What does this fold into?
Amino acid sequence: MTTINDATQAFLAAPPGLLIDGESIPALSGETFESVDPSTEEVIAHLQRARAEDVDAAVRSARRAFEPGSAWRRMTPADRGRVIHRIGDLILENADELAMLEAIDSGKVLSVARSSDVVLTANMFHYMAGWATKTEGHTMPFTMSSPDEYVAYTRSEPVGVVAGIIPWNFPLVMASWKIGPALATGCTIVLKPAEQTPLSALRLGQLVVEAGVPAGVVNILTGYGHEAGAALAAHPGVDKIAFTGSTEVGRLIVGAAVGNLKRVSLELGGKSPNIVFDDADLDIAIPGAAQAIFFHQGQCCNAGSRLFVHRKVYDEVIEGVAEIARGFQVGPVLDPESTMGPLISSEQLERVCGYVRSGQDEGATALTGGNRPQGKGYFLEPTVLADTTGDMKVVREEIFGPVVVAIPFEDPDELVRQANDTPFGLAAGVFTRDLNRAHRTAQLIQAGTVWVNTYGAFDAAIPFGGFKQSGWGREMGREVLDHYIETKSVVIRLS
Ligand code: NAI
Ligand code: MG
It folds into this structure.
């Protein structure tokens, strides 16, 4: 077992409080809540439990930091870019500690947290640093008068105070997806990490301060969704909400935003199709299909959870995926032998086991998995369900666990109809050697991202988000900036 070093032990024993106005402070009520290590079911830290009054203090702090003339508003774009870049550097300098916090708080295998989550988080800040100097307006002709009568141009201005509400599956990465664009555009932010995984955001908050971000620009509130989250979403001092989480809470966010008509971006659930054609290179497609569903125990909004395989290669592909599933070493995240960690909580484990049972009750066959290993921890064996049909609950609903449903197909048109027969539209995978087929299928699938001959390849430069009920707007890339910017048109009449 990898041991938790003294610095991290000290952090867990006395974690930072709420980050408000650059200070670490207790919740006004004095109440705390517990965070649990899902590998051991043990409490690893006690966190401040923010409620409405703390939300109010954080939003007021963010508003003050956004006032004209504040240190943040006066900072040059070049300096802002340097500070954001410095956050990325500090993340890499503290990579081992961040990976450890992420692993024990969220049930992520330590080596994966180190090589994937921390690296993606740094990448987001380094990429966003560049945009600080590049959010521009443009000039345009006034088309109904002579060219010398008017000068017209646009300015890109920050939208104001942003509320970022994020889930437990990728706590650090999600924090960077909200804080990165907020800083790049000159906004201020109040971030609420998920109650299951508050630790890495608090450490990130310290690094943000260390990097030189002025007090009040980034505020972090640990607490529950129905308390801190709901109060933040409804607060009249918030101009924009960036939410990632369940579709159900996404709807509540939209309702809460109605009062002052906040701008809202949403990144919600999915039931993404992963399609293997009969001409695919199966040495790529089989591990690709396994990775698409089993990465982080399937607790990914973009998980390739519906595996469509051409009839000709169906048996070979699903047996190959099942073989990989059987090969996972399911165990505690600090055991270097483990290649798959636990689910986030006992609730999530119950939910996912319920889906496996429901699939079997409706006639699906588990080629492998479906069982809980003995002992502590919210572990579940990776599961492949075959003989599924389009009307089954396991095929229609997001499971958010290591459970893939396999569906054979023959006719490409019927395949596209089935792949799109879902309220979601987040992502898709296509495995084929035929260039025509790859492009054609990428055009026809209703999804915000289509991966071809790979799955789950993320980069800060590439926009990500959903069609249909998978959300509103895009994260990352230049597209995310639109949600954090107000365009102001200035029209000048020359005399
Ligand atoms: P959730 O949507 O309740 O939690 C996401 C965030 O929203 C957390 O920070 C939570 O504290 C906050 N929140 C909860 N209720 C709120 C409210 N009324 N107002 C404002 N903020 C609120 O997700 P949960 O309950 O942890 O997971 C339930 C299911 O949601 C999962 O089983 C999975 O299917 C799905 N999910 C999808 C995610 C995605 O990335 N698409 C991420 C997490 C969960
Ligand atoms: Mg936890």
